[in-house]
Amino acid sequence: MTGSESKVPVSVLVQTKNEELAIAVCLDGLHAFDEVIVVDSLSDDRTVEIARGKGVRVVDFHWNGEYPKKKQWQLENVQTKHDWVLFIDADEVPSAELTASIRRFVGQSPAAAAAQLRLEYHFAGKALRYGHRVYKTVLLHRDRARFEPVDDLGLIGMGELEGHYQPVCDGAVVTLDGLLRHDDLDPVRTWFDRHNRYSDWEAGLRARREAHGVDRVNRSRQGRLFDRVPFKPLAFFMYSYLLRFGILDGRAGFDYSIALSAYYWQIGLKSRELKRQQEEGRQS
């Protein structure tokens, strides 16, 4: 087969906002897919210029502060050639093995609702082969999966994007072979900036959950398990660095395990602060 017939019948939706450092590498890594669309959140750098220079369609997104947020908005408003859509960030590129897995999967016309992909996570310039494993449910059949509201409007931390939770799927979710390379080219300080905001969001969600008695967040099984673990920062470090052999990644494995442990410590500390403030407010 030649031409478009040989392409993977999936529409890739690339999420961008000021990604001029990464977008070219990302788009170059998507040549096997039949359709690639950049959904840009009003970048003020060269992201859109570079994407259009690659011949890629660009859709502008401006969040109004309400639901739907960015990914669900795309499912509702962005027309795609294919029912199977792949959400990726500008600092992500699928491996050849993963691309082949996606081709086989969608070629079988599966009744599944979605597929989860394993990340090849890079931290401080090094690929992590061991330690904590991250999976993302980002290959979705647009008629069988959706991102439902999680009661996070007004919380600082995530803004326009659906955060650390999974789509609701009307059908099975399978795991594909191959890796989705996640390599953030920004300085490592930006990782800490983001996770400081993410911990605000997580703590705020936890406070609302405890106040209302309802948890609307659809997390992965691993995420639900970690949420219940006592002494979570220490437990996570032991899990990632020792039980999952993060020690074999050298200094990067240690740094990543420490960094994520500190992230979970932040969530706990901020959650306790919010709970104390709520109790003081009820007593006043």
From TrEMBL:
GO MF annotations in UniProt: glycosyltransferase activity
Glycosyltransferase 2-like domain residues: 11-134
Keyword vocabulary terms for this entry: Glycosyltransferase, Transferase
Alphabetized InterPro entries for the sequence: Glyco_trans_2-like, Nucleotide-diphossugar_trans
Top EC class for this record: transferase
Organism superkingdom: Bacteria
EC number: 2.4.-.-
Keyword rRNA-binding: no
Protein name: Glycosyltransferase family 2 protein
Organism: Demequina zhanjiangensis
